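Figure 6 in text form: structure in, sequence out.
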């Protein structure tokens, strides 16, 4: 048994856990009674979306002479409290970058004052349009995350979240809908902030999603998993008071349909939400794979035609009870049925220096079937309004998957396999926050997380003489993988000099894992403790500009397929195997953000530098008999420096241009056998979204995207470019919305990969049905408005670089 200890755990972890545990005790410390006993408290919100605004500046002026007395900055919930005030008349001024300032006259007599919500109206061009139409903006960007509102994204008509995400210049989508964030695929996927066993974002119908958050600089509250960042999918939840509903139907030409029905009821202390969302797609994929093995003098050419059927059904129920203004209890249950029926027709030739040319024809019938059940239970209690709150959450996500397959050679069934597993995530966590001093806040939490999977895979060859099926032990396996992660975090945030805000904290995670190979009775175990520091500093330069700086650390732990040492058959000439000796990769990153928002022009710029130790990468090796073996290894170090730029320009009130640009330079080191993992690469992505609004009910949009060639360890990826066009119009006071969309209208989106090294030469191309015409219809009943409930008072397989239409 192998046991790895990264850090001595005794002193550091014990003291930190005791500190966080004590934070949950209702201890009150008296610093003496203030001579000025009164306070002003309230919450700052967006006037359209009614969502809280974090880091808004709130200042108190004396009414008599307009002199500044004190000020603070709102917390993550948009709340503020200003203490140590005398009786008298005051002006309270609230402001935030991109919003019009708001001034309120206040008189303190013989009691502290609690204000009604302060609603800020946006001075930015996008939100200004929203105020007229009553819609949310499509995208909000901060240094920590970017939020995309799905309903306002015209690509949502496709039903696929990857189509929604591609509007971000920092995101690349490959031919199999895998997501790369700043060219990293090591991304943590969350649903409503909870870990999920759903392997692909496209398994979640877009019609049931409220928004998608791309979190590139998560603070210490978030799990440290995911060196590329976090993508959090926020599902639609309870709507406005009374009964409300929304129905959506989208049809793609040809053989595509998606839609959903959302029902919500809010009455008294109860909020009840029910929804069903589904989709069906039939897609064709054409691929080719040519390779030449220099040592054996073999050249193999393959052409693959794949037909994929993907029916998906998802249903959910959410119930929230608020027995008092300070308490809420929520229960959510969701189930998903996700299937993929894949038929591959493979034809090819094999050329050898000393043997005659031979040809082959194969057919693979592969089915992926997943049954998902997810449940969450949440409790929240406001201990002291705007000052102290505690919450507890428990969640379960379990997927029962199966993968039967049949392999035909010259139309004769000669091989078959059956695999199945049940990845399971269980989470229990407690979070707490409390205000300190005049404007400070301390946040802390404890979390226990388990991730497990028990997997069986049996592969059979037909004995053509006896007609019996013989189990092939080389390709069959039975494996069990267990992980436990215990974590604690603490953060403190406060403001200095009225315009400067800071947040500092750390997260500690203790991780244990076991990889159990039952067939050979072998267990590989590892455990370690890692600290993850976090720092954010933000300063408002003016009403229009702000700058921010963050430092954080992230980790990517090897996934189950990357560790699985047994051989997985992709097709008869391509195999995948894991590497049980993989270790976690660790990333340290610093990022600088600048935001500038004017009436007709906005820019949001991020500059970042990251260094990754023991980066995990995919490599391809030829066997002695000319098959390809795909596996995973640790490289040495990967350094990146990059920039993201997002801008919005308004021209004559009816035209809006939204260009995006992302560029990075990467340099890596490392070798594996004879494979050189070093690279020295500059790559960039640019896109442009142009919107024409002839009136308040109509949007006409064109989207252009270009990804430059990218150098990867062992491979070079060619450029990717495409264009989309969409039209949307609302009727009957926004109760009915019709849309028309054409994706990849020039049919140029494809995946081309090349490798030329001392061992082999390889060329791979893949083209799927990306040009699709979509018709969409949405009908709102009783002004359906999604929100996350009322405020209280206070993977089974890892995807390959080589695309074969799998």
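Output sequence:
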């Amino acid at each position: 048994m192998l046991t790895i200890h990264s850090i001595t755990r005794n002193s550091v972890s014990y003291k930190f856990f005791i500190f966080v545990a004590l934070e949950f005790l209702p201890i009150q410390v008296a610093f003496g009674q203030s001579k000025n006993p009164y306070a002003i408290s309230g919450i700052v919100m967006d006037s359209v979306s009614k969502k809280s605004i974090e880091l808004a500046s709130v200042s108190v002026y004396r009414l008599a002479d307009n002199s500044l007395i004190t000020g603070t900055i709102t917390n993550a919930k948009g709340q503020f409290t200003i203490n140590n005030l005398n009786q008298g008349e005051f002006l309270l001024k609230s402001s935030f970058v991109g919003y019009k300032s708001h001034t309120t006259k206040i008189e303190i007599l013989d009691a502290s004052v609690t204000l009604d919500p302060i609603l800020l109206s946006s001075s930015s061009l996008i939100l200004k349009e929203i105020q007229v139409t009553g819609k949310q903006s499509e995208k909000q960007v901060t240094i920590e995350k970017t939020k995309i509102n799905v309903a306002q994204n015209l690509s949502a008509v496709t039903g696929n979240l990857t189509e929604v995400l591609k509007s971000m210049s920092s995101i690349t989508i490959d031919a199999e809908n895998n997501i790369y964030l700043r060219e990293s695929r090591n991304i943590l996927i969350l649903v409503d902030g909870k870990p999920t066993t759903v392997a692909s974002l496209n398994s979640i119908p877009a019609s049931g999603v409220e928004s998608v958050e791309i979190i590139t600089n998560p603070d210490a509250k978030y799990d440290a998993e995911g060196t590329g960042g976090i993508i959090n999918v926020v599902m639609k939840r309870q709507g406005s008071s009374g009964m409300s509903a929304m129905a959506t139907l989208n049809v793609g030409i040809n053989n595509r349909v998606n839609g959903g029905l959302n029902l919500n009821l809010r009455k008294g202390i109860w909020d009840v939400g029910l929804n069903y969302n589904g989709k069906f797609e039939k897609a064709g994929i054409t691929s080719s794979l040519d390779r030449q093995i220099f040592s054996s003098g073999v050249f193999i050419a393959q052409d693959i035609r794949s037909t994929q059927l993907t029916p998906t059904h998802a249903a959910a129920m959410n119930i929230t009870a608020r027995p008092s203004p300070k308490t809420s209890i929520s229960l959510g249950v969701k189930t998903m049925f996700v299937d993929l029926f894949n038929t591959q027709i493979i034809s090819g030739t094999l050329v050898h220096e000393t043997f005659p040319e031979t040809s082959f024809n194969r057919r693979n019938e592969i089915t992926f079937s997943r049954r998902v059940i997810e449940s969450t239970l949440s409790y929240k209690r406001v201990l002291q309004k705007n000052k102290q709150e505690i919450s507890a959450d428990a969640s379960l996500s379990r997927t029962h998957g199966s993968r039967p397959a049949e392999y035909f050679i010259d139309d004769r069934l000669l091989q078959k396999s059956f695999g199945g597993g049940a990845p399971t995530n269980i989470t229990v966590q407690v979070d707490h926050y409390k205000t300190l001093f005049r404007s400070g806040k301390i946040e802390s939490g404890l979390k226990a997380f388990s991730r497990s999977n028990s997997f069986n895979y049996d592969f059979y060859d037909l004995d053509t003489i006896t007609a019996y099926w013989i189990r092939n032990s080389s390709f069959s396996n039975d494996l069990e993988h267990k992980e436990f992660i215990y974590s604690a975090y603490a953060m403190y945030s406060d403001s200095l000099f009225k315009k400067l805000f800071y947040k500092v904290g750390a997260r500690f995670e203790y991780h244990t894992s076991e990889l159990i190979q039952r067939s050979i009775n072998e267990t590989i175990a590892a455990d370690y403790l890692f600290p993850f520091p976090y720092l954010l500093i933000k300063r408002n330069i003016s009403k229009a500009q702000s700058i921010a700086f963050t430092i954080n650390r992230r980790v990517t732990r090897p996934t189950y397929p990357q560790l699985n040492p047994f051989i997985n058959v992709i097709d008869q000439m391509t195999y995948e195997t894991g590497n049980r000796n993989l270790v976690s990769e660790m990333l340290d990153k610093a990022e600088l953000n600048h935001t500038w928002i004017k009436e007709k022009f906005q820019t949001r710029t991020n500059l970042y530098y990251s260094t990754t130790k023991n980066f995990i990468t995919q490599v391809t090796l030829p066997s002695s008999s000319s098959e390809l073996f795909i596996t995973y290894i640790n490289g040495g170090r990967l350094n990146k420096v990059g920039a993201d730029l997002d801008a919005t320009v308004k021209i004559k009130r009816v035209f809006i241009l939204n260009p995006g640009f992302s560029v990075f330079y990467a340099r890596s080191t490392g070798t594996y056998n004879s494979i050189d993992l070093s690279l020295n690469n500059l790559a960039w992505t640019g896109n442009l979204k142009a919107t024409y609004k002839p009136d308040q009910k109509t949007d006409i949009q064109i989207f252009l995207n270009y990804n430059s060639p990218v150098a990867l360890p062992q491979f070079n990826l060619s450029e990717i470019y495409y264009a989309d066009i969409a039209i949307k119009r609302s009727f009957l006071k926004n109760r009915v919305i019709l849309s028309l969309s054409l994706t990849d209208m020039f049919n140029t989106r494809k995946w081309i990969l090349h490798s030329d090294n001392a061992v082999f030469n390889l060329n791979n191309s893949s083209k799927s049905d990306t040009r699709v015409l979509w018709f969409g219809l949405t009908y709102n009943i009783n002004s359906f408005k999604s929100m996350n409930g009322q405020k209280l008072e206070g993977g089974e397989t890892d995807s390959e670089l080589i695309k074969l239409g799998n």
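Caption detail: Residues 268 and 511 are 44 Å apart (CA to CA).
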